Amino acid sequence: MTPLPAGLAFTKGHGTGNDFVLYADPAAALPLTEELAAALADRHRGIGGDGVIRAVPAAAVEEGAAALAQGAEWFMDYRNADGSLAQMCGNGIRVFVAFLLDEGLADLADGQTIAIGTRAGVVTVRLEDQDYVVDLGAWKFCGGQAAVRRGCDRQVFAEGLSRPLGGLSVDVGNPHVVASVTAEELAALDLRTAPRLAPEAPAGANVEFALVDAAAGVLRMRVHERGAGETLSCGTGAAAAALAAWAWAGAAGPTTWTVELPGGALKVRMADDVVELTGPAKLVAKGRVL
Question: Which residue(s) pair with 13 in the sheet?
Fold first, then answer.
């Protein structure tokens, strides 16, 4: 196991229970490697979290990522708990902005917006009362309108279910597959094992299981995140699930959704090819590696 870097100052935070270890690296002196992320995220031998986030100046990141971060001062360098890279994280970016403010690395008044570089491009976050509103930018149904008309473009096989489910592939900066379930199926799911997709997603995917009430604009959801397993919440997953539910509901479907997850509720709004995610960010602890 990779030893933790002695003296590293870190913060622990979460967005509706989706938890992260964060550290600031203004001099770009401590790259977030696969091994370091896995060590910090280890819940038994490290700090513990669904992922690890490094705050680094956008100008100091590797060439490919820097090209995606033009116009942003800070870059959210993010890895899943197993150390794998992720393009974006909807809960993580809210916690990241709260961390920048807490560390004095950024200023943001109520109603103001900050641009953050990610591997999915520049994402803007607005402070609104006690919540953070994330404009997730460009999104798409990966199978196009043909998949939307069918309601799915993949099959989803999950432990605890007696049948395969139809899944709709949605890209909101990172890949998702959303399946509609009954209340009984939502409760019976065993997500200790990663769901299987057919056809497989080339880069893997987060898989959301959604119980949809289109009339109320509410959906309940559980999620298996690639590289982390089942988590209490997934921000981009909430957006993907709301987009799928909106597509399934047709032209009369609501454009604002409340997404209820085991860790709390998030709001998703769609308008003019924009999808916004609104939710809290909580910093809960600070420490230093011994």
Answer: 20, 283
Instruction: For residues 69-74, give the mean pLDDT.
Output: 90
User: What digits encode the pLDDT tens for the residues 124-155?
Assistant: 999 999 999 999 988 999 999 999 999 999 99
> Rounded distance, CA 99 to CA 78, Å?
14
Q: Copy the structure tokens of residue 49.
A: 């979290």
- For residue 65, pLDDT over 80 is answered with no
Q: Which of 37, 120, 133, 234 is catalytic?
A: 234
Common-topology check for domains 9-137+279-288 and 140-266: yes
Is 269 in contact with 121 (CB distance < 8 Å)? no
SS3 (DSSP) at 118 = strand
**Residue appearing with tokens 């209820």:** 260
Q: Which of 40, 41, 52, 89 is catalytic?
A: 89
Residues 99, 279: Cα–Cα separation, whole Å: 15
142 is catalytic: no
- For residues 40 and 49, the answer to whether their CB atoms sit within 8 Å is yes
Q: Give the global pTM.
A: 0.95
What region, left, alpha or beta, does residue 142 occupy, with left being phi > 0 and alpha being psi -120 to 50 degrees? alpha
Residue 180 CA from chain centroid, whole number: 19
pLDDT tens track for 216-242: 999 999 999 999 999 999 999 999 999
Separation between Cα atoms, residue 158 and residue 210, nearest integer Å: 13
Spatial contact of 176 and 208, defined as CB atoms under 8 Å apart = yes
Domain topology for 140-266: Diaminopimelate Epimerase; Chain A, domain 1 (3.10.310)
Q: Answer whether 138's CB lies under 8 Å from 92's CB.
A: no
